Amino acid sequence: MRQPTAEPSHTVQPDVIRYFPLPLFASIMGLCGLALVWLKAAHLWHWPAVIGQAVAVAATALFLLYGLLLLLKAAHNPQGIREDWRHPVRLNFFAAITISLMLLGTAYQSFAPGIGHGFWLVGAIGHAILVPVMMHIWLHHAHYQLTHINPAWFIPVVGNVVAPLAGVGYGHLEASWYFFAIGIVFWLVLMTIVMHRLIFFEPLPQRLAPTLFILLAPPSVGMLAWLKLDGETLDAATRILYGVALFLALVLATNAARFAKVPFFLSAWAYSFPLAALTVATMTMAHLTASRGLHTLALMLVALTTAVVLWLIVKTALAAAKRAIFLPE
């Protein structure tokens, strides 16, 4: 008796691969930021260093997982990668990958510098290649509009200021100056464009509202990077950069009720790294100035940053369990 012919099988990729969202790499930046907060607390206040180290290791594991999922997406859904590359917002999160590597290198510098140096080198070289390519896209696009601009556009070019945080200690002084120069100059350029868009056009969509916190990152990280480059000297540039960061934090604080009403989106991870950067900057300023007021503020920010990151982890896990993350946009 003739057996029925089996139908050819078609492998259907899980949604976690087909629709893996690039903005998830912002969570790595947030975890690295929290690790740096606790490692700084260990250095300045003799808190347990193991907390920051554990967070850094967890961020590494998560980075490897996300990297694997992104590679699988590229292999099985290349059209999705092309769409990310053409998207006016998601494009910027390719740079979050290389920035995450530099941040891992920064976190590991205090307890595993050999591993950290490797992370930093791969991230810095990748970022040095990626950013000019992205700038080329910005300059020769045919589909961007001013309303597409939002603070996430800071990530690629302004992310350069992350490099000196560990680059100086690893012996890459001139490369660190190169990255810092790009980041600071283009922060001023993009800050002007972003403020023009925010003031004269309609408010950001709810999904992108948390990205306003990214405004905190350039002056906060810029201050820390400047200190590394300038020999840890409390000078006018340090005070100016920290003052700008503190002012922007106050502006955002006046909108706390608005942020509290925004439903959870993956963009909420934009709260994490900028808050962490401001926290480390405040801890550093408190130490350099011996200011009791700044010391108190630093303690409050450590608590706030830790609570926010824990909240983000819980909300992300719940959203993933409900299959609300790996969806087509």
From TrEMBL:
The keyword Membrane appears for this protein: yes
- Where, per UniProt, does this protein localize? Membrane
> Per its UniProt record, what InterPro entries does this chain match?
SLAC1/Mae1/Ssu1/TehA, Tellurite_res_ion_channel, Voltage-dep_anion_channel_sf
Q: Which Gene3D superfamilies match?
A: Voltage-dependent anion channel
For this UniProt entry, which segments traverse the membrane?
A: 20-39, 45-72, 93-111, 117-139, 151-171, 177-196, 208-227, 239-257, 264-288, 294-314
Query: Mind telling me what this protein is named?
Result: C4-dicarboxylate ABC transporter
Topology with regard to the membrane? Multi-pass membrane protein
For this record, the Gene Ontology CC terms, alphabetical, are:
plasma membrane
GO molecular function terms attached to this record: monoatomic cation efflux transmembrane transporter activity
